[in-house]
Every structure is written in structure tokens, then in C-alpha cells.
Amino acid sequence: MPTVLIPTPLRKFTNHTSKVDISGGTIAEVISNLVKEYPDIQKHLLDATGTVRAFINVFVDQDDIRSLQLQETKVPENSMISLVPAIAGGNRKNG
Question: What is the pTM of this model?
């Protein structure tokens, strides 16, 4: 069963769990099953159309799903799925 790594900012929606084993053969199925188990996480992962939000990067093992088949990316049985929120900010130069 694939394991989803939950980033720190989203753990409050998964009972403070950092790793969750969730079934699914594609990213769409895994995320759907994750949302069924932890409904409060949905608005933070998915937009109104059910698509992964643009600021959430999703990796299957080391591969970004944006370079694969997006939410239809196949998920091998023992995969590690990482949800990585983009971080805004940086150095502001005065001047």
C-alpha cells in the first residue's frame, strides 16, 4: 500500500500523523481515499474542481507528477508519495 508523507502544516488535519498508508492505483485515487479518511484536509489539497492545488507539489517516490501524468500518474504498491506545499518568500533587498 502506498504511503503518503504529510507535511507539517497539514498534519493538524490528519490527527498529527506524519505518514499515512492509503490505498490507490493512481494519485487521484490515493488523494480521494486520503480525503475520505481525513475530510478536513480536502480544502487544503484540492481546488473546487477536485484538482490538486497549484501550490501543492506531489511526488511519487522522486518523480514530480507534473512531469508524468498528473493525477492519473500510476502509483506502485510500495510507493512513497510526498505532498510538498510551495513556500513563498525570500530575500527582500532594500534599496
Answer: 0.87
Cell of 40: 478536513
Q: Is residue 42's pLDDT more than 50?
A: yes
What domains can you pick out in the chain, each with its CATH number? 3-85 (3.10.20.30)
Distance in Å from the first CA to the final CA of the chain? 53
DSSP letter at 3?
E
3-state helix, strand, coil in the chain (%, to 5): 30, 25, 45
Is 17:10 a contact under the CB 8 Å cutoff?
no
Residue type, 47: D
Backbone angles phi, psi at 46, to 5 degrees: -120, 145
